[in-house]
Amino acid sequence: MPFAPSIAILSLVQASLIALPSGTMPAVASRLASRWWALVLPGSILGVIAGIAIDPGLADALTYLALVAVPLLAALALSTAVRGARPVFAGVTVPLFVIACGPLGSLAAQAAALALSGLACVALGSLLASIVSARWLKLAIYAMAIVDTCFVAADLLQNPNDVLNAAAPAAGLPQLQFAQFGSAVIGFGDLFIAAVLGALLVNSRPKQLRAAGIAALLALAFDLLFLFVAELPATVPVALALAVLELGERRTAADTAGARSATSPLRDPSSRAAPARDPRGAAA
What's the CA angle centered on 110, arms 174 and 114, to 5 degrees? Predict the structure, then answer.
């Protein structure tokens, strides 16, 4: 498949992950609540890139970790984390994994692997949102996009990404440490940040859908830059979608406050209240 439709599909899948989380996660997760978990977002880029730069063998470990963890997390998402989840749906991961093990480079295998990775990110994003406050999670989304942009601008991401993407498990098993469709590739972290934003907005379905639509439009527009460059930080459209949403909410709140102020009754400064009668003022 040509690059243009391939990257467009990946961008739309990324944006769709914002609309998937339902917010239902095991209660045990709340016991781990701490703002420090927000560092997982920017740290996932820093840790992987720095780790592979120091020891390229880390890429092989990550591909096997993804091979085991992604299907399990996808099953968790289908049973608890996505909208309409049911425990019985967890079994869908089995045929998805079998299809993902199909011929290398086939669209069916790539689509199945992409579905598994996306669902796994929904589970991870929902877990993270259940133990980190919204304020810190928003800051973490912005921080991840900034770190990603800095690495791409400094050309520090290409080589570690190539090493990670080249790592493959034995016996033709699928590479689940990144997502590929057609001739385009997107990082696992790019899907993860979208799922985190969706989990952050889980209490408002309209906000989720609005954010997903904004992210889709921004991502497709962002993809046009591939006409000039070979690599882009795909976390940026998601962070921008959050920024647009927050700016819109602040403007709405300001307009509402202004409307209330304009319609509130004002006291006429020329009016005078009748003096209070002194109970002792009776005639002697």
Answer: 90
Cβ contact 81:126 at 8 Å: yes
Q: Can you name the residues that pair with 82 across neighbouring β-strands?
A: 21
pTM greater than the 0.85 cutoff? yes
Distance CA 41, CA 160 (A): 18
- Cα separation of 110 and 275, whole Å? 84
Other residues' Cβ atoms within 10 Å of the Cβ of residue 107:
15
Tracing tokens 């920024």 back to the chain, one arrives at 243
| Residue 175 near residue 113, CB atoms below 8 Å | yes
CA distances from 282 to 23, 273, 274, 275, 279 (A): 71, 21, 18, 15, 7
The pair of structure tokens assigned to 244 is 């647009």
At 218-245, the pLDDT tens digits run: 999 999 999 999 999 999 999 999 999 9
12-32 residue pLDDT tens: 999 999 999 997 776 656 678
> Cα(188)–Cα(8) distance, rounded to whole angstroms?
16
In contact, 118 and 191? CB cutoff 8 Å = yes
Write out the DSSP string of 131-159.
HS-HHHHHHHHHHHHHHHHHHHHTT-SHH
Contacts 24+ apart (CB under 8 A), 156-160: 156/49, 157/49, 157/231, 158/230, 158/231, 159/53, 160/48, 160/49, 160/52, 160/53
The Cα–Cα gap between 64 and 67 comes to 5
**Does residue 79 contact residue 85 with C-beta atoms inside 8 Å?**
yes
